Amino acid sequence: MTEYRIEEDSLGEVKVASNVYWGAQTQRAVDNFPITGLRQYEAFIWGMAVIKRCAAEVNNGLALMHDVEIGEQILTGSAITEAIMDAADEVIDGRWDDQFVVDPIQAGAGTSHNMNVNEVISSRANELLGFGLTSSVKPVHPNDHVNMAQSTNDTIPTAIRLGCLWRLDEMLDTLDGLVNSLRDKANAFDDVVKSGRTHLQDAVPVRLGQEFNAYARAVERDRGKIKDNAEGLRRLGIGGTATGSGLNAHPEYHGRMITSLIRLTGLELVESDDLFETMQSMADMVHFSGSLRTLAQDLIRIANDFRLLSSGPSTGLDEIHLPAVQPGSSIMPGKVNPVMAEMLNMAMFQVMGNDVTIALAGQAGQLELNVMMPIIGYNLFQSMDIIINAVDTFTHKCVRGISANRQKAELWLAKNAILVTAINPVIGYAKGAEVVKEAMRTGRTVREVVVDLGFLSVEDADRLLDVRSMTDGGI
Q1: Which of 113, 265, 418, 475 is the most exposed place for a label (fewest CB within 10 A)?
Q2: Active-site residue, 329 included
């Protein structure tokens, strides 16, 4: 049987398992919100712990962390501060991830999240000071000490910003890996001339390398948008406390917190120029999510192109071969599916769905606070996690192993009557249309028809219908 201890909050007593570090308010949230069974992402836990550590340091530096009497013993404010910082360091290192148990869909604003962190750090700090989980003496208080000069309303949005910035470079590096792999394929496929397609119909020739270079460029541009849109996340509103006024925080607290956070995290951070606005508005998060959505729609498009270009193989385009990573059917032997492209599609659908939720939550704030912050944070962290994992997998298990089917690409191009476009400036549009109709009716090539109809000499036909030169443009 599970053993319990009794914890108290402002509503009364609560039974809490004797071996966990959270307290009464966390337990109430666990009991109240059995919604998804999901847990917070590491980026959020890290961001909250970083805030708690810096706050303890800053408040002690402002002489606000007072001594506590325990019988005849005096526990100094500095000792309490050190214990909080040590406990927070352990959380930052991921040691206590299993103690953060509040469902992402819970009471508005994230008070339960904030108290989960306060209670875990205070319990661990007390333990470090010699007062175990079941001790009746608990000198470090989750509200009075760990949450000093803070409110859920400024810690949660600050943690969201910090968590996104914490994983930003990892996500940008992952996108760089995809860009580089696509560009490598562009170079390898540059001499493969194939039929272009618009409206999914035959069009003038392109090089397979040109197609892949365009994919690389699109992802590269999306990466730039993400990096640019992350700049707004660097402006922190910590110190605004409940409404943006900074009530219960020292006048120097905000500035000192930014300095401490920069030193601890190594991130580029700036003070908010309006704590009220930074608390009211989730626009920076919505803006950042929008850049993830833009990337997602481009990756969906690229994945769909891969599926089309590799379709068949006997009855499709079959111009590229994707790596075979698993059998494709439980009933059809030998079938191999474009599973990595399909995976990327589904992953990016989720990112786009998350963005819709973030946009709706972003506009749902009222007056001094947006209470939908928990779902904004969770979806942002999930989107980043999905992008990092899905793009890295797609790069390594799909893009790097793609090969070109030169024979099939050249076969389709040879049958493409739209090659006549290149000789329009010489024979005119009307004669060009006549050539196309005849070529499609007889199954002959454009070169054969244009010579037979007397529109061009053999020499001019060979010169003007050089498919490689068509891919370079010009008249």
Answers
A1: 475
A2: yes
- Give CA 235 to chain center in angstroms: 20
113 and 54 in one domain? Answer: yes
Question: DSSP code of 474?
Answer: -
Same domain, 311 and 424: no
Q: Alpha carbon of 27 to those of 91, 193, 473: distances in Å?
A: 19, 64, 68
Band of the pLDDT at 460, cuts 50, 70, 90? very high
- The verdict on 397 and 419 lying in the same domain is no
CA distance 447 to 435: 9
Strand-pairing partners, residue 74, are 69
Note whether residue 247 is domain-resident.
no
Q: Is residue 265 part of a domain?
A: no
pTM higher than 0.90:
yes
The 8-class DSSP code of residue 69 comes to: E
**Pairing mode of beta strands 403-404, 320-321:** antiparallel
> Does the pLDDT at position 339 exceed 70?
yes
Q: Which of 115, 129, 35 is nearest to 77 (CA)?
A: 129
What is the percent of the chain with per-residue pLDDT over 90, rounded to a whole number?
A: 94
Say whether both 144 and 180 belong to one domain: no
User: Given 329, 330, 403, 457, which residue is catalytic?
Assistant: 329
Q: What share of the chain is helix, strand, coil (3-state, %, to 5)?
A: 60, 10, 30
- Strands in 53-183 per DSSP E: 68-70, 73-75
Q: How many CB atoms lie within 10 A of CB 163?
A: 25
Q: Tell me the CATH number at 89.
A: 1.10.275.10
Beta bridge partners of 109: none
Mean pLDDT, rounded, for 293-301: 98
Separation CA 308–CA 283 (nearest Å): 38
CA dist 64 to 58, 81, 257, Å? 9, 10, 14
Same domain assignment for residues 92 and 18: yes
Tokens representing residue 374 in the block: 């928990």
Q: How many helices (H) and strands (E) does the chain have?
A: 17, 10
Question: What are the φ and ψ backbone dihedral angles of 93, each rounded to 5 degrees?
Answer: -75, -5
332 and 290, same structural domain? yes
**Residue 372 falls inside a structural domain:** yes
Radius of gyration of the chain (CA): 31
Last residue of a domain, one of 407, 439, 456: 407
- 79: containing domain: 4-148
